[in-house]
Amino acid sequence: MNAAKAKVCIVDDDPAVQDSVRALLAAFGFETHCVASAEEFLLGNFNGSIDGMVLDLRLPKMSGIDLLTQLTEEGAAVPTVVISGHRDEDVLAQLASFQAVIFLMKPFAPNRLVEFLSEHCTSSGNDCPDGSNHG
Q: Which of these, 20, 46, 99, 115, has the minimum number of CB atoms within 10 Å of its CB?
């Protein structure tokens, strides 16, 4: 099967998290790119070139929720798994207003992350890594 790889950007300032999420997603056929901050993501000009995002909530300077808000306002939001080691009910309420966004508390079950991205990836209208077509 020649399934196009869905592209996922991992935005997390912890290199260990970047490495573990990258390895997990690669094992399921995702193509990944890692950045350490929201600002680095914005400078990377990823708009239109990624199919999903794994986003740490607490980042230096610009927070994950601020990045998600900006992308939504610009019409550039993609399915996003927000991850954090801290549970904040106010932030969870904010996240509920976004489409195709879930929150996973660190440490999270790897299958939840993979299932969400597999279900919501579009791979630019091509086949998803799991062989299904959601585009």
A: 99
Give the domains, in start order, of the chain with CATH numbers: 7-125 (3.40.50.2300)
Distances (CA, A) of 44 to 12, 39, 91, 128: 14, 8, 26, 24
The listed range with the strongest mean pLDDT (11-20, 76-85, 97-106) is 11-20
3-state secondary structure of 108: coil
pTM: 0.85
CA pair distance 69, 94, nearest whole angstrom? 10
CA pair distance 87, 104, nearest whole angstrom: 9
